[in-house]
Predict the structure.
Amino acid sequence: MDLRDYREKIDRVDDQLIKLFAERMEIAAGIGAYKKEHGLPVLDPIRERKKLLEINEKAPENMKNYMTPLYSVIFEQSRSYQNRLMGYHTELTQKIESAIRDTTPLFPENAVVACQGVEGANSQIACDKLFKMANIMYFTSFDAVFTAIEKGLCQYGVIPLENSTAGSINAVYDLMTQHKFSIVRSMRLKIEHNLLAKSGTKLSDIKEVFSHPQAISQCADYLKNLTGVKVTACENTAMAAKMVAESERRDVAALSSRACMKLYGLECVEECVQDYDNNFTRFICISKDLEIYPGADRTSLMAVLPHEPGSLYKILSRFYALGINLNKLESRPMPARNFEFMFYFDLDVSVYSPQFLQLMSEMPGVCEEFAYLGSYSEVI
């Protein structure tokens, strides 16, 4: 036989598989209807485990490693089909539908907003772009911002999440597992770092540079060329500028913004010293309660998955099956659990789509722990 003959045989087998798969899915639909009528859950883990063992025993020896993952996917698709036919009315989907209905149609212009740092910090600049007139309360740490939201001291909080060149802010992701909040909006802010110092200071005079660790990382190549200069990390870029302005030393400088230069009366020794010009930081705006504003087309989730082979694949295959684009995947170790991770997902999906509702109805059942962080739009 030549290649064409083999392909014709494959096509004939595929025709049979398509018919049998469709028949199997219709039988699964009948099972789903029975379960709905009798108040039974879609997932029966004991039955699935037993079925996989039977399939593995029946499979030819050289096919065993292929049969189990194949049928695991088939089971996933069957459950997904059953869920779709049974409807998406879970506690979570009802909460989402209530938030869509009860949230005001316009994002607020005025609010009490929590930011980390001091006046001039990038969080404050991001806040001013999100809100027309915000009453900003400054806190010394990201943890304090989350706590202020959780306790209702502030209506919203603005937190940096990731940078296009330096990557994710791990401390924020870790805090997200410890606090209850909802993301209501996000935005990308272009970041430019300038070397700021007191009036009259020359580059050759500088012996120490202060800034936030992320800013230091984003200007790594520039700082390497400053011979004999000590680099010291501090809470944020605005605090660095404030420290330089208030210091009695004439040999210190800060990596900070032009807004801080004007705010603290400093001069720019060298401008735009970041390693890459395409340098953006993504900020999220968080609230205590779930708010979903019109046009929400991005969703964030957190999940702890079973510590077993294929658990992440099962989640990713769901996104693929529903045609949902995964925009970001981040994993963080769980300190209290050996070799277990929290996974953070950003998805491009409209909150009004049936695929979104189906995903939200299914996710809690396939995760050890699951948190829906909110659906929102991103300001660019």
